């Protein structure tokens, strides 16, 4: 297979990794509150119209060099000096164990296959978007102002997630999307997530209540000063 066929495939894979990471992070972290946030262009790649978050792409420099690095995206709840893992997402591109006939085709054959692969990626990203809004942590995101959720991008095998939740002795569930076959490997997205986030919701509501009281107090002080 000509080198250009692999190069074009890896370009599509890298953009998929970017988009998946941006979708996951923006579905959990309120970037409106981030000072000095630099956003890239808003491009509807894979027919998905979401912001390009430059800080996410900058953090993914290692994947720009090697798209086969396993990508782990951890979502944390932070409060009262704690940092608790809520979700771990795994996004990977791994070589298929059984070579397909596509390896024997031309660069033009690969380009034709990539057109169909982009359509499948589009469907997968939409499914991911919907799935994230059904998970327990979504309520925390919706109610999180100021934001109490954070994220971390790192290289880690997918089986690490299950061990992390087992160490915390909390109930967790997992889900894997159907992989997408490319001429040079499989695209996979999977998640392990904490099933019960109620305790964090309660603490978040208390923090919100205290914030409201502080704002009311400041307003009252300013009101009194203007009427002196």
UniProtKB/TrEMBL annotation:
InterPro entries: ATG13, Atg13_N, HORMA_dom_sf. GO terms for biological process: mitophagy; piecemeal microautophagy of the nucleus; protein localization to phagophore assembly site. One of its GO terms (cellular component) is cytosol. Pfam families: ATG13. This is Autophagy-related protein 13 N-terminal domain-containing protein. Keywords: Autophagy. It comes from Phytophthora kernoviae. The keyword Lipid metabolism does not apply. Residues 82-198 form the Autophagy-related protein 13 N-terminal domain.
